[in-house]
UniProtKB/TrEMBL annotation:
Highest taxon in the source lineage: Bacteria
Cited SUPFAM superfamilies: Starch-binding domain-like
GO MF term set: carbohydrate binding; carboxypeptidase activity
Entry annotated with the keyword Protease: yes
Protein name: Carboxypeptidase regulatory-like domain-containing protein
Keywords: Carboxypeptidase, Hydrolase, Protease
Length: 950
């Protein structure tokens, strides 16, 4: 007892020395520091790498911890430190998707009591969604549509909405603050039908979506009355009078269009117009201070127009015949100076006859018997050395003056355009002129900006011009500028003019600036305009200043919708003339329904009827409410499955809408192609059925007692129409297809995808699926015969490399099935060990490992598996080595339809660091590590192939 007591102080002393000095192989005073910035920012989905430095000696365990549990891509491990030598340890983590901007995560690295922190902050990643209809129905007084905007980023932002005309005039604007993930709907109102430009932009993120909205008068429904759309307006002008106006237009039927307009001002006679047009002609009439009627008829290549007007009585008639390669016409005018004109166009080539087109001869003759006077002209266009040339000659003969002859020519070679004309009588040349034009692009001149220029000359006149367009810095647009000099009748003028537009107030206002400078000074003028607009009020201000005339004009106009009406006001002021004009107005929308009797009189609707039935093989209650679509129109079935559609003449696909089909139904004959003719009825029949289920199994036929690893098999399923799909079974050989249309199906094994040596016992079977029932099939395969090599107490039953053909330098896996308990299993090449195998925990009797193929190997490679336990059992096998062999294998369905999403697994014959798939030029990253990687691939719409790359 005393001896033990005397030993305790010595033992305590040794323990203290070990703690202070550190034992061999243990960390001794580890110091951890951060070698990268303290805070790093990254967008969601991105990776960040922080670098730490460790100083000390011995083996230490590195531990990592993320405050919010963000995924770490670096594993914890034990590292060996050397005294006086820093050890750099990089740590990579990924910022999860959907993390709000500004979220900060603390990453802590601990090693033997020492630690250091680094912070990762989620950066702002903008995201914007905007949806709006391409077309908006305008039903007076307004057109309305819904604009849906969503902030899909990870931080708060402000959405700016701007709606303008194609000329840039603001129509609507809004500013919406949105939190991350928030969605809003805007009801946008438009006061008149037109094409508008829509811009949605994030104020902070800068993302924008741009498009167009086509606001059109609402079309008449296929089962509703036609409508005439128009406006009624009242206007007052001071000083001036009060005026009223009315106008409407629209279809009376599918074959006739009608328009009406009328106006009245106090102190004057009312005036108006009527118009009716159809496919073969038109009829129009006007009344008031000026009146008249006009009729036009068209039939094939012949057209005729007759018109009469007053109060100065005048009548006219035109008769034209035109076709491919010719055109003839005659026109008579009856008034105080009657005339008769004959014309003709003839194509000397194969093209259609058009005036002054190369290869076209044109002639015209005019007779005025009251003077008397006769005139005519002849023109011909042709091509000379690829230069378009036009020659034209004419004459005018009058009893009182000598005959005048005219001649002109135009030549348009590639670098420039040149033209000239001359007119002469018996007394000499009466008039002449020449003109030329070109551009820097046509002359291939290297100028800072493109310039167009030209000149013209004639008796006592000379002129020249040059035009260019300059780019100005934002917010100004392009500047169109023109310089022109002209001398006429002894007077010379010179002007430089141009104009540009700029947006202001974040695009909600438009500023226009135009000006003209030159000599004489009274030509100098400056114009300034400002337009601002929105859904409630639109404003326009104008200013025109001519300092040397002198002249100064200003104008202010306002427009605002109120209660369905559009109110207008404008004030104009001439400051030097001391004159002010005030205009007030209001416009009310009109919607006039055409009576059915009028529609029937003018031909009714240009439609045919598609009547049909949807037959359901299953519960009868499912017949009602099915949606059938064709040509952009749809109808719902009644309790008996019947439907009716009215469609314009043409060819259509009548189909049940699959998006709104009940989940328990599948199409058997879900669509049909029909031809619709006017006023005729077409009957169709569509067939649906309750979903059927197909269950199957691929059975492996093996000798009793033989154990096989689970395998997947490829199976093809084909219907009676020859349509085919394929799938892989589960590891047990079973498969299920939960949604098939009833009918006869053929199920077969894809023998090309069976492992080498496997035999097919039952390759194909047929099954009849009934509505709502489950059909079952079974196929069978046989594995290759088992080979047994003996060697004492250990037997090698099977050697299975994962590939029979590999490239040099690969490291394929090898599975060896054994009977017994070997102490070592290796792969030998020419007496040299090239692979060491280890037992597989989840499979008894299976040893697995990689063998290293030499880099210089080529052709057949003779290998041998050796299993040792007192004695050695040997099993020879071969590998084919080729530089053209693949480095891995891709496992996916061999046949897939376009647009289908497939699960893809890639296995490499050696461990890799990254792996991806390339399909139609698009790279899709795969997830995994080592030799096994996986991901999902969407089959391209166009035929093609995909390949995996490491």
């Amino acid at each position: 007892m005393a001896s033990c007591t005397r030993q305790r102080p010595r033992l305590a002393l040794w323990i203290a020395l070990l703690i202070l000095l550190g034992g061999p192989g243990l960390g001794q005073g580890v110091q951890v520091e951060r070698a990268s910035p303290e805070v790093k920012k990254a967008a969601p989905g991105a990776t960040v790498t922080h670098v730490f430095v460790l100083r000390g000696s011995g083996r230490v365990q590195v531990r990592l911890a993320s405050q919010h549990g963000w995924p770490l891509l670096t594993r914890e491990r034990t590292v060996a430190l050397e005294a006086g030598r820093p050890y750099y340890f990089p740590v990579t983590l990924r910022v999860p998707e959907g993390v709000p901007a500004g979220t900060r995560d603390r990453l802590r690295l601990q090693a033997d009591g020492g630690f250091a922190d680094a912070f990762t902050e989620a950066a702002y990643a903008p995201g914007l969604e905007a949806r709006w209809p391409a077309e908006v129905a305008y039903l007076p007084p307004l057109g309305r549509f819904t604009l849906e905007v969503a902030n899909t980023g990870n931080g708060a932002d402000v959405v700016l909405v701007r709606l303008t005309t194609l000329e840039g005039v603001p129509v609507y604007q809004a500013r919406l603050p949105l939190e991350a993930g928030e969605r809003r709907e805007l009801r946008v109102t438009v006061a008149e039908p037109r094409v508008l430009r829509l811009l949605v932009r994030l104020e902070r993120g800068g993302l924008q979506r741009e498009g167009y909205v086509n606001v059109q008068p609402a079309r008449a429904k296929s089962d509703g009355a036609f409508r005439l759309l128009g406006r009624a307006g009242v206007a007052y002008r001071y000083p001036g009078d009060l005026s009223l106006a009315l106008g409407a237009a629209g279809p009376l039927s599918d074959f006739a269009q009608f328009s009406v307009g009328a106006g009245y001002a106090l102190g004057s006679r009312p005036a108006g117009s009527l118009g009716l047009s159809w496919q073969g002609g038109y009829l129009s009439a006007a009344f008031g201070p000026s009146y008249g009627v006009a009729l036009g008829l068209y039939e094939g290549a012949v057209s005729t127009q007759i018109a009469f007007s007053g109060p100065v009585r005048r009548g006219s008639m035109n008769f034209d015949v035109s076709g491919r390669g010719y055109g003839f016409g005659a026109a008579a005018l009856l008034d105080e100076d009657p005339s008769l004109r004959l014309s003709a166009d003839l194509a000397t080539g194969r093209d259609e006859a058009q005036p002054f087109r190369p290869g076209t001869l044109s002639a015209e003759l005019t007779l005025r018997p009251a003077r008397p006077e006769l005139s005519g002209q002849l023109a011909y266009g042709f091509s000379y050395r690829d230069w378009p040339v036009r020659l034209q000659g004419g004459f005018t003969g009058d009893a009182a003056v000598p005959v005048e002859f005219r001649f002109s020519a135009d030549v348009n070679p590639e670098p420039f355009s040149l033209g000239g004309r001359i007119a002469w009588t018996g007394l000499g040349v009466r008039d002449w002129g020449v003109a030329a034009a070109s551009s820097s692009e046509r002359l291939e001149l290297d100028l800072p900006l493109p310039v167009t220029f030209g000149a013209a000359a004639g008796p006592d006149r000379l002129s020249g011009f040059a035009r260019a367009r300059l780019d100005l810095p934002a917010p100004w647009g392009d500047l169109g500028a023109e310089a022109r000099v002209e001398r006429r009748a002894g007077r010379t003028t010179f002007t430089v003019s141009g104009g540009s537009e700029a947006s202001a107030a974040d695009g909600l206002a438009l500023i226009a600036l135009d000006g003209r400078l030159g000599w004489p000074l009274d030509l100098n003028e400056i114009k300034l305009g400002l337009r601002m607009g929105g859904s409630e009020l639109r404003t326009r201000a104008d200013l025109t200043w001519a300092p040397w005339k002198p002249g100064l004009k200003t104008g202010l106009a306002l427009e605002a919708p109120a209660g369905g009406a559009l109110l207008q006001a404008r004030v104009d002021r001439e400051w030097y003339g001391d004159r002010t004009t005030l205009s007030l107005g209001a416009q009310l929308p009109l919607v006039l329904e055409v009576p059915p009797a009028v529609t029937r009189f003018f031909g009714g609707r240009n439609v045919g009827v598609v009547a049909g039935e949807v037959r359901v093989e299953g519960p009868e209650r499912l017949r009602e409410g099915l949606v059938v679509r064709a040509g952009g129109r749809e109808a719902r079935t009644d309790a008996q499955g019947r439907f009716r559609l009215e469609l314009p003449p043409g060819t259509y696909t009548v189909a049940v809408d699959p998006a709104r089909l009940p989940a328990v139904l599948v199409p058997v004959r879900g669509q049909v192609r029909v031809e619709v003719r006017r006023k005729q009825r077409v009957s169709v029949r569509l067939v649906l059925a309750a979903r059927s289920v197909l269950e199957g199994r691929v059975r492996v036929v093996a000798e009793p007692g033989r154990e096989l690893s689970p395998r997947r098999f490829a199976v093809a399923i084909e219907d009676a129409q020859g349509r085919q799909t394929s799938l892989f079974t589960d590891p047990g050989g079973a498969f299920t297809v939960p949604a098939l249309a009833p009918g006869r199906y053929t199920v077969r094994l894809l023998e090309d995808l069976l492992p080498p040596g496997w035999e097919v016992v039952v390759a194909e079977t047929a099954v009849e699926l009934r509505p709502g029932e489950t059909g079952r099939v079974e196929l069978a395969v046989r594995p290759p015969p088992r080979k047994v090599y003996g060697g004492g107490r250990v037997q090698i039953l099977e050697v299975r490399p994962e590939a029979d053909r590999v490239p040099p330098g690969a490291a394929p896996l090898v599975d060896v099935r054994l009977q017994g308990a070997p102490g070592r299993v290796v792969v030998v090449l020419q007496g040299r060990i090239v692979g060491i195998l280890l037992p597989v925990a989840e499979e008894e009797g299976v040893w697995r490992g990689r063998l290293r193929v030499p880099d210089d190997a080529e052709g057949p490679l003779a290998l041998q598996v050796e299993a040792t336990n007192g004695t050695t059992a040997r099993f020879p096998f071969f590998l084919s080595v080729s530089r053209d062999a693949p480095w891995g294998v891709v496992r996916a369905l061999p046949v897939a339809r376009p647009g289908q999403t497939l699960a893809v697994a890639v296995h490499w014959y050696a461990p890799v660091e990254t792996s991806w798939i390339e399909a139609d030029g698009e790279r899709i990253a795969l997830a995994g590590e080592g030799a096994d990687w996986s991901g999902r691939l969407t089959v391209p719409r166009t035929p093609g192939s995909a390949g995996a790359t490491r």
